[in-house]
Structure formats: C-alpha cells, structure tokens
Amino acid sequence: MDLDVFVSAHRAEWDRLDALLRRRRRLNGAEADELVALYQRAATHLSLVRSSAPDPQLTGRLSQLVARARNAVTGTRRSSWRDVTRFLTQGFPAAVYRSRHWWVPTALVSTAIAVLLGWWIGAHPEVQSTIAAPAELRSLTRPGGEYETYYSSHPAASFAAQVWTNNAQAAAMCLVLGIFLGIPVLWILLQNMLNLGVGIGLMSSAGRLDTFLGLILPHGLLELTAVFVAAGTGLRLGWTLIDPGPRSRRTALAEEGRAALGMAIGLALVLFVSGAIEGFVTPSGLPTWARIGIGIAAELAFLTYVYVLGGRAARSGATGDVEEAERSATLPTAA
User: Which helix or strand (DSSP H or E) is residue 50 part of?
Assistant: First the structure.
C-alpha cells in the first residue's frame, strides 16, 4: 500500500467525520446517516492501515477517530446489573466450559502426580529425611501437630481472607503467564502438586492419612478445581500463540485474552467460596463426614453450573469474550 496515496484519497472523509463529531447541535437524519457511513469506512481504513502499513501516527489518529465515532453511534455504555447477571450466567460458565478439554486433563494429570509423589514420599523414609529432621516431621504429623493447627491458627475471617488472596493470585498468575507458551503455568502447577504430595506422603507414613484428607477435602476440591481451570486456560492461551487456528494471531490472542481476564474475575468468586469453607468449615467442630460432604456439595454445584449453564451458553454462541459491539473492528481473515 502506498500510504501517501491512501491518505490523500481518504483524508476528506476523515475530516468530514471529525467535523460531524465536533458538531455541538443535534445532527439531523441525513447527517446521522452520513456519520454512521463514515464511521464504518474509517473502521475499515484503520484495519487496512494496521495490517498493510502500520504507521504509528496514522494508526493513532484513526484509532482515536474511530473510538470517538463509535461512542457517538452507540452512545456511552454503562455497566449495569444486567451485565453482571449475563457474566455470571453466560460469559463465565461458557468460558470455563469451552476450555474443559484443557483443564480436565490438567486436573487428572496433576492429581495423579500428587498421588504418586505422596506414595513415593510415604514409602521411602530416606526421602522423608531430606524434607525435614525426624523431630520436625513428628511436629508436623502428630495429633494436634502443625498440619492440624494450621487451619485454626488464626481467626476464621482473617484466615479465609488470606487464603482467598493467595489462591486468587496463583490463579491470576496461571492465566496471565500462559502467554509465555504455558511454561510458567507448568511450574506453578508442579509447586502446588509437590506441596500436596508432601502432605499426603508424610501423613500417610504417620498412619494419619484419613485425618489429612478430612482436613484437605472440604475446601480442596473446589480450590484445586479453580486452580486447574486457571492452569488449563493459561495453557490454552499459550497454545493459541503457537496455533491460532483460522483467526489471525492478534485476533485470537485478543479474544482468548479477554475471555481469560473474565475468567480471572469469575475464579476469584469461586476461590472466595473455597476460602470461606477453609476458614469456617475445615477447622470447625463438625464431624469429618459433614465437612467432606460440604466440600463435595460445593464441587458438584460448581461442575453443574459449568456443564449445565455453561454448556447451554456455549451452544448458543457465548465464548466469555466481551459483547461484539464492544470489540475493535476487524477485517475478515481468509481460511
């Protein structure tokens, strides 16, 4: 594309659009129609410039012009409770459902690794000796030891808030760092599974695995599921960088990145529930079966939410991305 010729050919249209946008009086019908037509042309021109001759100055001018025109055509949009409802009933569950082919295998493989690590640590005393001294291991695993008192060492509300903050940060890191081909996500997963495997191994070697599971399962089922969803989505985002499919790489990353951002907000709500369970249910005086039952109920509720509401929303076209009217204008991409 000859940029000078392109600018000379379309400058008059851009100036006319700018003039219409600066009008202080209300536009009449013909002027409003002209504004819409010029906005559509300017959006097409912006896409052409970005793809064929990405001049920073011209791109900046057209981007600003198109944004102003979009606001004039669509009006200033304010978030409402309807948006929150749409996000919770369609956007978020659909995004989780669409990424199930990534986070379900991630969950299965990660859980298998944690169990194998736990078995290896529990069956080999020499491995346990590399983790801590015998006296420290007894302090961790004995009745009333650190594994048990950890969940009641702070006031419930404060502990729940701390747990929620830490887990939300871990989930957000999985989502954000997925762009680096998913490698940091694998490291975060490994660290989590190593911590879980150590707990399984040490408590099983002390003959107290049932106590450990009674402490970890009430909140751990939902908490780990949220981490697996975040990790699977991060891995999917990294794979999009390698194989964007029929979309351009920029478009694919933009769409999947916006969906991942929405999932970060949704998973923060899920982790808030698991943090509340960990802070108030896990250290409570309820029987073990009741505490585990609450954890199972929370996990089943989340899976039902994803597969029923999310599946229905995904089949109707929801992806977790923002509404089409709020996306940047793009040109069709040839398959």
Answer: helix 29-52
